[in-house]
Specification:
It contains 7 helices and 13 strands.
């Protein structure tokens, strides 16, 4: 398969291997990315503030006096403090999508650890409002003297046949559209609606046809999980721009996984 675009509307049976390898434990690594890989990594989503370089979790932890570790959730790394004016307290990392620069860095590593980079599979959560268009989503724009004004209706992002129930991949608690294309298509998979219009949305799950690895970005989590070979995870851990920790399938990314940064007493 060649080309740069991903073709949606694929047979969901192509993703049937995922379900037996997901534990169903929400908030745990193995409930988000399939079990059975040699090693796993957690890629932290950086904090993106307009007109500023990306802010790492380690920089935030140092400023906040907290300890960054593999299972630390964002709100324990950056607890809100009275009077705090640091931009990362207001913004926080994106949930459910990996920013474009980090995604490109991740793809560059992933490409070296598969024999089928030109033939990959992508899952996109079907619940995004922008997928279905108006009235599920609408855009407003501020106009001087007139306040907020509605913009023209947003059309559906995909044809009706792509959104048909028999074309959806059903995973525990989530349904997804399925697409097929080269690895680079992950950067052009779709757009999400933001306060400024439309912005890139990374895949919620994707893997190559040889299934040497699988990447998952759960819509409610602020980090991306990667399952693959030990060599892949080792390379990610040594990346000079990605902030990555080694994790295990039974690790919890919820509050109970952080036994170091305890919440302050009421």
């Amino acid at each position: 398969m060649t080309g740069s675009a991903a073709a949606f509307g694929q047979d969901p049976a192509e993703a049937s291997w995922l379900v037996p390898r997901l534990t169903g434990r929400w908030g745990h690594v193995g409930g988000v990315v399939p079990v059975g890989f040699e090693a796993y990594g957690r890629v932290l989503h950086p904090v993106r503030v307009e007109d500023q370089p990306p802010i790492s979790w380690s920089a935030v932890a140092e400023a906040a006096g907290t300890q960054l570790h593999a299972l630390a959730p964002w709100h324990r790394v950056a607890p809100r403090q009275p009077g705090a004016d640091a931009s990362w307290w207001q913004e926080g990392p994106d949930t459910g999508t990996l920013d474009p620069a980090s995604l490109v860095d991740l793809l560059d590593v992933l490409r070296r650890h598969t024999t089928t980079a030109e033939d990959c599979w992508f899952c996109l959560w079907s619940g995004y409002g922008w997928i279905h268009g108006s009235p599920a989503v609408s855009l407003l724009r501020f106009q001087d003297g007139a306040g907020w004004a509605a913009q023209p209706p947003v059309p559906p992002a995909f044809p009706a046949e792509v959104l048909a129930p028999d074309r959806l991949v059903e995973l525990p608690g989530r349904s997804h559209l399925l697409a097929r294309g080269p690895l680079d298509a992950a950067t052009r998979l779709a757009d999400e609606v933001t306060t400024h219009g439309f912005g890139p949305q990374s895949p919620n799950l994707f893997w190559p046809s040889d299934r040497r690895w699988c990447v998952a970005t759960e819509i409610d989590l602020d980090s991306t999980l990667v399952g693959g070979t030990g060599a892949l995870i080792s390379e990610l851990l040594g990346h000079d721009r990605l902030e990555v920790f080694r994790v295990r399938p039974d690790d919890s990314l919820q509050d109970d996984g952080d036994r170091i940064n305890r919440p302050a007493a009421p």
